[in-house]
Hints:
By secondary structure, this protein is of the alpha+beta class. It has one domain (about 5-180): Aminopeptidase (3-Layer(aba) Sandwich). Helix content is about 30%, strand content about 25%. The chain contains five helices and eight strands; from the N terminus they run E-E-H-H-H-E-E-E-H-E-H-E-E. An eight-stranded mixed beta sheet has the order 1-2-3-4-5-6-8-7, covered by helices on one side. The relative contact order is 0.13. Coenzyme A binds near residues 107, 146, 147 and 149.
Amino acid sequence: MASIRSERLELVSISPDFIDALLAERRRDAEVAAGLSLPEDWPDAHDRGFLNFRLRQMRERPETQEWFVYAVVLPNGERPMVGHAGFHGPPGVNVVKAPDAVEVGYSIFESYRRRGYATEVVRALIDWASSEHGIRHFVASISPENEPSLALVRRLGFERTGRHWDEEDGEEVEFELRISDGA
Ligand SMILES: CC(C)(COP(=O)(O)OP(=O)(O)OC[C@H]1O[C@@H](n2cnc3c(N)ncnc32)[C@H](O)[C@@H]1OP(=O)(O)O)[C@@H](O)C(=O)NCCC(=O)NCCS
C-alpha cells in the first residue's frame, strides 16, 4: 500500500502482518515488512490493546486498511518510527456519527515532540483524505486537559462543536473541520 509523504515525514500504512509480527515479538520481521526501525519501548500495554483491536477490524474488512493506522517515519538513515497516526475507520466512523466525516487520531513519541511533527502529520492525513477520497469533513476528540492536542487542532482550523464521555478516556471535547472544495 502506498505511503503518504509530507515535507519531513513518511506515513507508512500498517498492515495486519506487521501487527501480527509485532505482537508476537517478531520485531525484526515487523521492521522489515514496514521498512522502519521500531523504538525499543513501543508498543506499551495500551498500544498493544489498540493494535489488537485494529488487527481484528482489518482482518474482518481488509479493504479498510488505508483508514486505520500509519507509522510516522523519518525517511532517512535508520528510518526511525517517531509516532503513529491515522483515522478511527472509514468515512462514517467518528464520534459525531457524521456519514461524510473521518476522525483523526495521532501520537508522537515523547523524544520527538515539539518539532511540529504532529501538526504536519494531521495536515498530511487531511490532504490525503481530501485529494484521494474527496473527504471534506474531519473530526477530532480530545481531553480538555490535553493542551498540545487542543493547540494543534485549533491551529489547523478545527472548531469546538460538542463534548461527550468516553468509557476509556473520560471527558472529551469534540472538534470539527470542514474544508471547501478548492482547499
Ligand atoms: C499531542 C501530540 C501528538 C503533539 O505532538 P507534537 O509533535 O509535539 O505536536 P506539534 O509539535 O505539532 O505541535 C503541538 C503544539 O502544541 C503546543 N504544545 C506542545 N506541547 C505542549 C505542552 N507540553 N504544553 C502546552 N502546549 C504544548 C504548542 O503550541 C506546540 O507548538 P509549538 O511547539 O510550536 O509551541 C503529542 O504531545 C502526543 O503524542 N501526546 C500523547 C498522545 C496524544 O495526546 N495524542 C492526541 C490524542 S487527541
